[in-house]
Amino acid sequence: MKLHKLTHDKKLYPNKWCGPSILSILTGATSEDCAMLIKKKFKRKYCKGTSWTQVSYVLKKHKLKVKHAFATRKSEHDEIVATKLFGKRFKIAEKPQTLIKWFEWHRIKPKENECYLMAIGNHWMVENHGMMFDNHNPEGVMISDSRMKKARVTFAIKLSK
Q: What is the dihedral of CA 71, 72, 75, 77, to 10 degrees?
């Protein structure tokens, strides 16, 4: 999947949180535009600490499709929410995995128009062809060099155009 350069609107105060930043990378819109969509829809004053529901709203607005999802948290609440969102395309891993282990065990060679949107701990990142993108590394960094490589993967959602 072709990712876009992270862009901020220079006229506005730049929104540098991970949620709007990864949405900018995925959609090509500025991070402020993505934050504004979330703020208007969910009646929020600020856009930080975005949830999957908020992120998926912006993805749908930009016509990105969810192929399937993996979750590593094993609470009843997470299962109920994920089943409502993804239905049969949802799988729960047996135990929490670090980013490196997840990449080794679950990664299938990606198609050109696919990438993974991942929640690692409480941080959103995009994985595309072995590179991790977020607000700290908008140009991308190899998974082995990522600062989050030992953090636990909470969600991994496969996206396509």
A: -20
Structure tokens at 67: 């192929």
* 82 Cα distance to chain centroid: 15
* CB neighbourhood size of 146 (10 A): 23
Residue 133 pLDDT greater than 90, yes or no? yes
Contact call for residues 98 and 153 (beta carbons, < 8 A): yes
Asked whether 2 and 25 are in contact (CB, 8 A), the reply is no
Q: What is the pTM (predicted TM-score) of this model?
A: 0.81
The alpha carbon torsion through 118, 120, 123, 128 (nearest 10 deg) reads: -40
Q: Are 132 and 96 in contact, with CB atoms under 8 Å apart?
A: no
Mind listing the pLDDT tens digit for each residue in 82-102?
666 666 556 666 666 888 887
Task: Report which secondary-structure segment, H or E, holds 33.
Answer: helix 31-42
What is the rounded CA–CA span in Å between residue 33 and residue 161? 20
Identify residue 37 by its one-letter amino acid code: L
What are the angstrom distances between the C-alpha of 66 and each of 48, 85, 95, 120, 156? 23, 10, 23, 18, 11
